[in-house]
Design a protein that fits this description.
heterodimer, A: 8 helices, 77% helix, B: 150 residues, mainly alpha, 6 helices, elongated
Amino acid sequence: MKTNWAELLGWEKDKIDEIRFYGFSLLREGKYDRARLFFEVLLIIDKGTAFDRQTLGAIYLQMNENEKAVEQLNRALEIEPDHEFSLLNKAKALFMLNQKTEALTIVDRLKKSANKPLADDAEALILAHT
Amino acid sequence: MVESWNIGMGAHDTYAKGVEGLREFSESLKLTPSETGAIVHHTTILKLKPDIPQLAVLMRLNRRKTWADFSFPEAYFLWRRRRSYFLDLNEKIYADKERLAAYVDQHRGFQQDEEEESDSQTLMQFLEEVADYNNLVAEVEERTRQFLQG
Protein backbone atom coordinates (compact mmCIF):
# COMPACT_ATOMS: atom_id res chain seq x y z
CA MET A 1 0.00 0.00 0.00
CA LYS A 2 1.32 3.45 -0.98
CA THR A 3 2.10 5.91 1.77
CA ASN A 4 -0.16 8.94 2.01
CA TRP A 5 2.56 11.53 2.62
CA ALA A 6 0.18 14.46 3.09
CA GLU A 7 -1.63 12.57 5.83
CA LEU A 8 1.63 11.45 7.44
CA LEU A 9 2.94 15.02 7.59
CA GLY A 10 -0.45 16.56 8.39
CA TRP A 11 -0.39 18.81 5.32
CA GLU A 12 -3.79 20.10 4.29
CA LYS A 13 -5.05 21.95 1.21
CA ASP A 14 -3.86 25.39 2.38
CA LYS A 15 -0.33 24.14 2.87
CA ILE A 16 -0.35 22.41 -0.52
CA ASP A 17 -1.57 25.64 -2.18
CA GLU A 18 1.22 27.58 -0.44
CA ILE A 19 3.82 25.17 -1.81
CA ARG A 20 2.34 25.60 -5.30
CA PHE A 21 2.41 29.40 -5.09
CA TYR A 22 5.94 29.52 -3.66
CA GLY A 23 7.11 27.11 -6.33
CA PHE A 24 5.57 29.29 -9.00
CA SER A 25 7.22 32.40 -7.53
CA LEU A 26 10.61 30.66 -7.77
CA LEU A 27 9.80 29.82 -11.35
CA ARG A 28 9.07 33.45 -12.16
CA GLU A 29 12.40 34.41 -10.61
CA GLY A 30 14.11 31.98 -12.97
CA LYS A 31 15.13 29.57 -10.18
CA TYR A 32 14.07 26.51 -12.13
CA ASP A 33 15.96 23.87 -10.17
CA ARG A 34 14.38 25.00 -6.90
CA ALA A 35 10.95 25.37 -8.48
CA ARG A 36 11.29 21.85 -9.85
CA LEU A 37 11.75 20.46 -6.34
CA PHE A 38 8.57 22.21 -5.18
CA PHE A 39 6.50 20.81 -8.04
CA GLU A 40 7.98 17.33 -7.65
CA VAL A 41 6.88 17.45 -4.01
CA LEU A 42 3.41 18.51 -5.12
CA LEU A 43 3.14 15.46 -7.32
CA ILE A 44 4.26 13.23 -4.46
CA ILE A 45 1.76 14.59 -1.96
CA ASP A 46 -1.10 15.68 -4.22
CA LYS A 47 -1.06 13.22 -7.09
CA GLY A 48 -2.66 13.98 -10.38
CA THR A 49 -3.52 17.68 -10.53
CA ALA A 50 -3.29 18.84 -14.12
CA PHE A 51 -1.72 22.20 -13.29
CA ASP A 52 1.19 20.69 -11.35
CA ARG A 53 1.99 18.22 -14.12
CA GLN A 54 1.73 20.93 -16.79
CA THR A 55 4.07 23.18 -14.85
CA LEU A 56 6.56 20.45 -14.00
CA GLY A 57 6.62 19.41 -17.66
CA ALA A 58 7.31 23.02 -18.65
CA ILE A 59 10.10 23.27 -16.06
CA TYR A 60 11.76 20.12 -17.45
CA LEU A 61 11.52 21.63 -20.94
CA GLN A 62 13.02 24.88 -19.72
CA MET A 63 15.88 22.92 -18.13
CA ASN A 64 16.44 21.00 -21.36
CA GLU A 65 15.33 17.68 -19.86
CA ASN A 66 13.18 16.91 -22.86
CA GLU A 67 12.39 13.24 -22.30
CA LYS A 68 11.13 13.93 -18.80
CA ALA A 69 9.18 16.90 -20.17
CA VAL A 70 7.38 14.76 -22.74
CA GLU A 71 6.59 12.10 -20.15
CA GLN A 72 5.14 14.63 -17.71
CA LEU A 73 3.27 16.59 -20.38
CA ASN A 74 1.71 13.39 -21.73
CA ARG A 75 0.34 12.68 -18.27
CA ALA A 76 -0.91 16.27 -17.99
CA LEU A 77 -2.62 15.96 -21.38
CA GLU A 78 -4.35 12.77 -20.27
CA ILE A 79 -6.12 14.89 -17.66
CA GLU A 80 -6.64 18.01 -19.80
CA PRO A 81 -6.22 17.05 -23.48
CA ASP A 82 -6.82 20.53 -24.96
CA HIS A 83 -4.46 22.49 -22.74
CA GLU A 84 -2.70 24.55 -25.42
CA PHE A 85 0.38 25.57 -23.40
CA SER A 86 1.09 21.90 -22.67
CA LEU A 87 0.60 20.96 -26.31
CA LEU A 88 3.01 23.68 -27.40
CA ASN A 89 5.55 22.70 -24.75
CA LYS A 90 5.26 19.06 -25.79
CA ALA A 91 5.85 20.03 -29.41
CA LYS A 92 8.95 22.01 -28.42
CA ALA A 93 10.31 19.05 -26.44
CA LEU A 94 9.61 16.71 -29.37
CA PHE A 95 11.46 19.04 -31.75
CA MET A 96 14.41 18.99 -29.38
CA LEU A 97 14.27 15.18 -29.39
CA ASN A 98 14.19 15.28 -33.20
CA GLN A 99 10.71 13.74 -33.36
CA LYS A 100 9.58 16.23 -35.95
CA THR A 101 6.55 14.44 -37.44
CA GLU A 102 4.60 14.32 -34.19
CA ALA A 103 5.73 17.82 -33.22
CA LEU A 104 4.63 19.28 -36.54
CA THR A 105 1.20 17.65 -36.22
CA ILE A 106 0.74 19.42 -32.89
CA VAL A 107 1.94 22.86 -34.00
CA ASP A 108 -0.09 22.65 -37.19
CA ARG A 109 -3.17 22.37 -35.01
CA LEU A 110 -2.00 25.15 -32.66
CA LYS A 111 -1.38 27.71 -35.39
CA LYS A 112 -5.19 28.04 -35.67
CA SER A 113 -5.50 28.82 -31.96
CA ALA A 114 -7.53 31.83 -30.81
CA ASN A 115 -4.64 32.69 -28.51
CA LYS A 116 -2.64 34.91 -30.89
CA PRO A 117 0.82 34.81 -29.21
CA LEU A 118 0.56 31.04 -28.90
CA ALA A 119 -0.52 30.71 -32.55
CA ASP A 120 2.44 32.92 -33.54
CA ASP A 121 4.83 30.68 -31.59
CA ALA A 122 3.39 27.64 -33.35
CA GLU A 123 3.79 29.33 -36.72
CA ALA A 124 7.40 30.26 -35.87
CA LEU A 125 8.17 26.63 -34.98
CA ILE A 126 6.71 25.46 -38.29
CA LEU A 127 8.85 27.99 -40.17
CA ALA A 128 11.94 26.96 -38.24
CA HIS A 129 11.52 23.21 -38.74
CA THR A 130 10.23 22.87 -42.30
CA MET B 1 13.02 88.25 5.63
CA VAL B 2 11.36 90.47 3.02
CA GLU B 3 8.07 91.95 4.15
CA SER B 4 5.29 93.07 1.83
CA TRP B 5 5.33 96.73 2.88
CA ASN B 6 8.97 96.99 1.76
CA ILE B 7 7.90 96.53 -1.91
CA GLY B 8 7.40 99.86 -3.68
CA MET B 9 4.12 100.93 -5.32
CA GLY B 10 5.68 100.29 -8.76
CA ALA B 11 5.62 96.49 -8.12
CA HIS B 12 1.85 96.54 -7.47
CA ASP B 13 1.35 98.54 -10.65
CA THR B 14 3.41 96.04 -12.72
CA TYR B 15 1.47 93.11 -11.20
CA ALA B 16 -1.88 94.73 -12.02
CA LYS B 17 -0.77 95.36 -15.63
CA GLY B 18 0.39 91.75 -15.92
CA VAL B 19 -2.98 90.39 -14.73
CA GLU B 20 -4.82 92.67 -17.13
CA GLY B 21 -2.61 91.57 -20.05
CA LEU B 22 -3.20 87.89 -19.24
CA ARG B 23 -6.98 88.42 -19.10
CA GLU B 24 -6.98 90.12 -22.50
CA PHE B 25 -4.86 87.35 -24.00
CA SER B 26 -7.13 84.56 -22.69
CA GLU B 27 -10.18 86.46 -24.01
CA SER B 28 -8.58 86.51 -27.47
CA LEU B 29 -8.21 82.70 -27.36
CA LYS B 30 -11.93 82.04 -26.79
CA LEU B 31 -13.67 80.59 -29.83
CA THR B 32 -17.11 81.47 -31.08
CA PRO B 33 -19.59 78.53 -31.49
CA SER B 34 -19.15 78.60 -35.30
CA GLU B 35 -15.36 78.43 -34.95
CA THR B 36 -15.66 75.45 -32.58
CA GLY B 37 -17.96 73.70 -35.08
CA ALA B 38 -15.45 74.26 -37.87
CA ILE B 39 -12.68 72.60 -35.84
CA VAL B 40 -14.86 69.58 -35.04
CA HIS B 41 -15.83 69.32 -38.71
CA HIS B 42 -12.22 69.25 -39.89
CA THR B 43 -10.94 66.88 -37.21
CA THR B 44 -10.26 63.27 -38.15
CA ILE B 45 -9.72 60.65 -35.49
CA LEU B 46 -6.53 58.80 -36.17
CA LYS B 47 -5.94 55.08 -35.54
CA LEU B 48 -4.43 55.17 -32.08
CA LYS B 49 -3.44 51.51 -31.72
CA PRO B 50 0.19 51.18 -32.82
CA ASP B 51 0.76 48.71 -35.59
CA ILE B 52 3.96 46.92 -34.56
CA PRO B 53 5.37 44.44 -37.03
CA GLN B 54 5.77 40.92 -35.64
CA LEU B 55 9.52 41.04 -36.22
CA ALA B 56 9.83 44.17 -34.05
CA VAL B 57 7.88 42.42 -31.28
CA LEU B 58 10.13 39.41 -31.53
CA MET B 59 13.33 41.47 -31.41
CA ARG B 60 12.20 43.74 -28.60
CA LEU B 61 14.76 43.55 -25.81
CA ASN B 62 12.33 44.13 -22.96
CA ARG B 63 10.24 41.11 -23.88
CA ARG B 64 10.68 38.51 -21.18
CA LYS B 65 10.18 35.24 -22.92
CA THR B 66 11.11 31.78 -21.80
CA TRP B 67 11.46 28.78 -24.07
CA ALA B 68 8.77 26.91 -22.17
CA ASP B 69 5.31 28.42 -21.73
CA PHE B 70 3.79 28.60 -18.27
CA SER B 71 0.27 29.36 -17.11
CA PHE B 72 -0.42 31.01 -13.76
CA PRO B 73 -2.01 29.08 -10.91
CA GLU B 74 -5.49 30.19 -9.98
CA ALA B 75 -5.60 33.11 -7.49
CA TYR B 76 -1.82 33.54 -7.68
CA PHE B 77 -1.90 37.35 -7.67
CA LEU B 78 -4.33 37.45 -4.74
CA TRP B 79 -1.98 35.19 -2.81
CA ARG B 80 1.05 37.39 -3.64
CA ARG B 81 -0.52 40.32 -1.83
CA ARG B 82 -0.84 38.48 1.44
CA ARG B 83 2.23 36.24 1.23
CA SER B 84 4.62 35.84 4.09
CA TYR B 85 8.34 35.54 3.38
CA PHE B 86 8.42 32.34 5.42
CA LEU B 87 6.88 29.23 3.94
CA ASP B 88 6.32 27.70 7.36
CA LEU B 89 7.52 28.04 10.91
CA ASN B 90 10.89 26.39 11.42
CA GLU B 91 9.57 24.46 14.44
CA LYS B 92 6.93 22.91 12.19
CA ILE B 93 9.50 22.06 9.53
CA TYR B 94 11.79 20.36 12.06
CA ALA B 95 8.80 18.43 13.41
CA ASP B 96 7.93 17.31 9.86
CA LYS B 97 11.53 16.24 9.26
CA GLU B 98 11.56 14.20 12.46
CA ARG B 99 8.23 12.57 11.63
CA LEU B 100 9.42 11.70 8.13
CA ALA B 101 12.78 10.35 9.36
CA ALA B 102 11.02 8.25 12.01
CA TYR B 103 8.62 6.82 9.42
CA VAL B 104 11.45 5.94 7.03
CA ASP B 105 13.45 4.29 9.86
CA GLN B 106 10.41 2.33 10.95
CA HIS B 107 9.80 0.99 7.47
CA ARG B 108 13.43 0.35 6.54
CA GLY B 109 14.01 -3.31 5.91
CA PHE B 110 10.36 -3.95 5.07
CA GLN B 111 9.09 -4.08 1.53
CA GLN B 112 9.53 -0.44 0.71
CA ASP B 113 9.58 0.02 -3.04
CA GLU B 114 12.03 2.22 -4.91
CA GLU B 115 9.41 4.87 -5.68
CA GLU B 116 8.52 5.27 -2.01
CA GLU B 117 12.16 5.59 -1.09
CA SER B 118 12.74 8.19 -3.78
CA ASP B 119 9.61 10.10 -2.66
CA SER B 120 10.76 10.19 0.95
CA GLN B 121 14.21 11.46 -0.14
CA THR B 122 12.62 14.21 -2.26
CA LEU B 123 10.40 15.25 0.65
CA MET B 124 13.38 15.38 3.00
CA GLN B 125 15.35 17.44 0.50
CA PHE B 126 12.38 19.80 0.19
CA LEU B 127 12.09 20.26 3.96
CA GLU B 128 15.81 20.99 4.21
CA GLU B 129 15.54 23.49 1.37
CA VAL B 130 12.64 25.29 3.07
CA ALA B 131 14.46 25.34 6.43
CA ASP B 132 17.59 26.80 4.77
CA TYR B 133 15.49 29.41 3.00
CA ASN B 134 13.72 30.38 6.23
CA ASN B 135 17.05 30.72 8.03
CA LEU B 136 18.28 32.99 5.26
CA VAL B 137 15.15 35.16 5.46
CA ALA B 138 15.48 35.34 9.26
CA GLU B 139 19.11 36.44 8.91
CA VAL B 140 18.20 39.15 6.40
CA GLU B 141 15.42 40.39 8.70
CA GLU B 142 17.80 40.43 11.68
CA ARG B 143 20.46 42.38 9.78
CA THR B 144 17.85 44.86 8.54
CA ARG B 145 16.66 45.38 12.12
CA GLN B 146 20.25 45.91 13.33
CA PHE B 147 20.86 48.40 10.54
CA LEU B 148 17.70 50.34 11.34
CA GLN B 149 18.57 50.43 15.03
CA GLY B 150 22.09 51.71 14.19
